[in-house]
Amino acid sequence: MQYVSTHPRTGSGCLRIFNSSPNISRYITKTLPSAYTDLYIGFGLWIASTTPLDANLTPVSVPILTLRSTTAVQQLTVGLNESTNTIMVHRGTNGGTLLGSTSLPVTVGTLHYIELHVVISDTDGVVQIRQNGTLTLDLSAQDTNNAGGGDIKSVQLGTPPSCNGAIDAFFDDFIVADAWPNGAGVHKKDPNADGTYSQWTSTGGAVDYTEVDDVASYGGLPDGETTALSHQTVGERTSVGLSTIGVAGTVLGITLLSNVKNSAAGADQMAQFIRLGGADYDQASFTPATVDGWHMDTASINPATGVAFTTAEIDAAGFELGWVVK
Is residue 69 part of a domain? Predict the structure, then answer.
C-alpha cells in the first residue's frame, strides 16, 4: 500500500492498494466511532487491473470493500466481477449469498466515484450503489445481517484475509457519512508556516512547522523524534499555519490528525485545537501512549458560527492547528 500522486480524484495524492498475486491480502481497516445499522460510504476508484480469485466461486469477484460488525462478522462484501467489472454485493464473504450486481461496469483505466448505502436488517435490509451519480443498484427488503452480526463497526478497503485476491486499485476521497456524500472530496492541508503560538520546544528543525510536516510528501511516514515538538508545562501552546485547498464550497467536516507520544515526564495529557478568528477551540483532552501513535479529532461544525465550515473559512489567514498541554 502506498500514498501516491497517480490517479487522485481531488487534491494531489491517493491510496494505492496493489496485489501482485491472488494469494496475497492487501487492505486497510477503519474502525468507526460507533456501531451503525444505516450507513453511507463514498470513494473515488481507479482500477488498473483485477485478477480472478477462485474458479470455484460463481461468479468470481475481487473484493474492494468489506463491512464488519462489532463482533467482527463479515456483513457485506463489495467486489468487482472479474469478467465484467460490474460491482457485486455479497452477504458475508465474496463466496456468500449474492444480493445483487450493478447495471454499469467500473471501467478499467477510468476514474469513478462510488457511493454505497446499506441498512443492516434480517428482513428490511437496503443496498444501494451510485456510480458517478447514477443509481446502478437499488435493493430493499433484503437480509443483510450475516450470522446475526447486527451492525457495522469497521470498514476495510482492499482484499482482506478471508477473501484473498489480486487487484491494482487507487482509492481517494473515502467518506463515511449519514447521508449520500454527493461527490464530496477529501483535501489535505499541510503545515507550511509557524502559527500564533511557539511555546513548545523544537528538537530537530529550524522552525516549528518543519518539525510536524512529516507526511507532507508522497509515501512519507512520521520520523519519530528526529523532528518533533515537545513540552510539559500545562497551558502552553504551539500552533502552525496550513496550506490552502483552493476550492469553494461547504465543508462536511475537518479532521485534525497528529502523531504523538507521551514521554512520561511531567504532564501526560494534551489536546489538539483549532484557532480561527483569533480564538482557540480546544478539542477533547487525551493521554498519549508511550509509543508513537496517531490521534484524530473531527469537527463538523465551525465552533465560531455554529454551522458548517466553508472552504473560505478554513483557507483564511489565521486558521491554524495547534497543541496544548493539559
Answer: yes
The segment with the largest mean pLDDT, out of 15-29, 35-49, 152-166, is: 35-49
Question: Nearest CA to 227 among 202, 251, 194?
Answer: 202
For residues 99 and 223, what is the distance between their CA atoms, to the nearest angstrom? 45
Looking up residue 58, the CATH number of its domain turns out to be: 2.60.120.200
Q: Extract the C-alpha cell encoding 47.
A: 482500477
Inter-residue contact 176 to 155 (CB < 8 Å):
yes
Domain span at 81: 2-177
Burial state string for 158-178 with b = 16 or more CB within 10 A and e = fewer than 16: bbbebbbbbbbbbbbbbbbbe
Strand partners, 280: 275
83: which 3 cell numbers?
Answer: 469478467
**Alpha-carbon separation of residue 46 from 65, 157, 173 (angstroms):** 14, 13, 12
The phi and psi torsions of 210 (rounded to 5 degrees) equal: -75, -15
- For 295, the 3-state DSSP assignment is strand
**Which residue is listed with cell 518539525?**
211
Question: What's the whole-model pTM score?
Answer: 0.84
Q: Are residues 127 and 240 in the same domain?
A: no
Cell of 25: 491480502
